[in-house]
Amino acid sequence: MSRLASGFLGFFLVLAVFLGGAALAADISLPAPTTQGGIGLFDALWKRSSAAGGDFTLAEVSLADLSTVLWAATGLNRGGTGYTVPMAEGLPPYVDVYVAGPEGVYLYLPKENLLREISAENIRAQIGAQAFVGKAYYVLIFVSNPEELGGLRNRDAAEEFAAVLTGAMTQDVYLAAAALKLGARYIHSMKEPAIVAGLKLPEGHKPLALMLLGN
Ligand SMILES: Cc1cc2nc3c(=O)[nH]c(=O)nc-3n(C[C@H](O)[C@H](O)[C@H](O)COP(=O)(O)O)c2cc1C
Known about the structure:
alpha+beta; binds flavin mononucleotide; seven-stranded antiparallel β-sheet; two-stranded antiparallel sheet; 215 residues; globular; NADH Oxidase; 2 domains; 6 helices
């Protein structure tokens, strides 16, 4: 190889590494979640409630609190051998949690405790039927994952199982929010086409619920 050719090759290799690194840099490595202490389960159950729509004012929620809420929803427990919510047939999570925030849209990866960037768009005001959805600092979006559900022996129950899991996950969000003194609200009235586009959902991945999170 000529000197010129190897020079070009080197330049493109450096460029590729740089661009690859830049893409990864947009992911958010979450701080470790709080997994101990807090207000106590029965206090959290006593306080669990939906914040009123008008309570959402775009006030910031910290990444530490977001990490704890996501962990409560579907994080690993028992030393990494199980999850905070029960999964049918012991499958890996078949409902994904996406996060829409001021800086963009992300997919939560529980094993890596990472938010994988989907886009740098702020889609919060476009995805709910009610205007106050756009005033939540974070909107968690629960989406069924047909590839993971495909692992079920009991395929006929897939939709039902995804709904059951979403119920467990969102209840955990309510309890974690109560413990962290955050506002939370379950929302069914979604704009599905805007969510499918905003989250760049693959074919068959279905939005099931939103959970608003605010301070
Ligand atoms: C399945 C389900 C769907 C809901 N959908 C909406 C919704 O689209 N918009 C909304 O503002 N609240 C929604 N909510 C929140 C309920 O209105 C709220 O939980 C109810 O008023 C009881 O209040 P609480 O959670 O404080 O006990 C929903 C709750 C559930 C369980």
